[in-house]
Amino acid sequence: MEDQDVRSALKEYVTEAEPPIGLTGDGVLAAGRRSRRRRVTTVIAAVALAAAAFPVGAALIAPPDRSEPAATSPCGEKTPGETFQAATARLNCLLDRAIRTYATPADPLKLEAYPQPGKTLYLMSGELGDRTGSVFVELMTNDGTMLSTGVACESQDPTPTTCSARLVRGGTLVETTIKKPGNPGFVAYQAGYRTAEAIVIITATNSTRPGTDEKPDPPAQRELPLLTEAQLREIALTPGLVP
């Protein structure tokens, strides 16, 4: 399939009721795996599986409200009259700076937008460091529906290896991790943060190679993802990530 198949599948996804956290539609995965865009293929497959366990006993510091961008942000602030193009540029800047705080992208990062009536889905993917690890970002507008910590982990499909959910100022933070039995070396971390205004999901894997229909899990290229669980959490909680 071509790039257009991935775009079409994503557009179908954003016109339907999205799952609580993450892309899980079989249509998106099938199109993604056959796409010639290697990075998107790898990370879209990983998003449906992804992961990061909340370390036992770790302190969770409440960040600033997501609707309040950092006052000194060089990326600008969300304004009432902000255009679609300006919002995309601002969000791209925020995510690029947040990711580069912890890892060096192998290529320039670019946020792609998929607008639909009433909602917009933003996607960013990239290979990191020596091209042995990937990062994938999903950012979408939310209609005000909140996520209960009591069902956040139960709603994950497929079931992650580990999962934790916490209430953080402004929303619900869900962190999961998965290690596939069929591919012992593959590891994916994920941090998802949902507020009334937005949903952001950051995924990191230890591979940049594509999966296939027969073997959807990419082969591992390093022991663990380049971005740690704590780093994904900080990226997901970046102030100002509101479309």
Automatic annotation (TrEMBL):
Keywords: Membrane, Transmembrane, Transmembrane helix. The chain crosses the membrane at residues 43-62. It comes from the Bacteria. Residues 205-224 are annotated as: Disordered. This is Uncharacterized protein. It comes from Amycolatopsis thailandensis.
